[in-house]
Amino acid sequence: MFRGASAINLDTKGRVAIPKRYREPLHVEYNSQLVITVDIQSACLLLYPLDEWSKIEAKLLLLSDTLPAERAMKRMLLGYAHECELDGNGRLLLPLPLRQYANLGKRAMLVGQLNKFELWDETAWQHQIEQSRETIQDEEFAENIRLADFSL
CA–CA separation, 65 vs 43, rounded Å? Predict the structure, then answer.
């Protein structure tokens, strides 16, 4: 399981070094194979271990090719999906279209989300954190039935 936020840098070739604490689990449990795609609700990327991505693909197979919303979701997630492997130095090469989608600059944030990572431009991540704080204070958040029994 992946958790925590790590500041990382993109090099001039568009590579990111995955923090060391994640490299061994990714190598041992997932053979260093990942799939990177776009987040359809935020300007960030999603990095899935290949086994986890396979579960997403199984769900996508069940969606319609004729219903516009389902077709659009499939196009985005699958159209941008890129298989990759950590190199010997624990780096991933991010294809240019993915970097452009997430507006990634030199400084980025890799954020663990249990079964996947989000990859954000650092400034966009800070903005997202502020938006999340506002959302948590919103009445709609307090009325969310799925969150009613959630406590820390």
Answer: 25
Under 8 Å between Cβ of 129 and 117 = no
79-104 b/e (C-beta count within 10 Å ≥ 16 → b): ebbbebebeeebbbbbeeebbebbeb
Query: CA-to-CA distance for 82 and 46, rounded, in angstroms?
Result: 11
Q: What is the pLDDT of residues 35-84, one digit of tens each?
A: 999 999 999 999 999 999 999 999 999 999 999 999 999 999 999 999 99
| In 26-140, beta strands by DSSP E | 33-38, 45-49, 82-85, 91-93, 107-114, 117-121
Residue 75 identity: R
- Using DSSP, state whether 84 is helix, strand or coil: strand
Identify the H or E element spanning 17.
strand 15-17
pTM over cut 0.85: yes
Q: Which of 136, 94, 93 is nearest to 147 (CA)?
A: 136
The amino acid at 90: G
Whether domain 2-122 has CATH 3.20.20.140: the reply is no
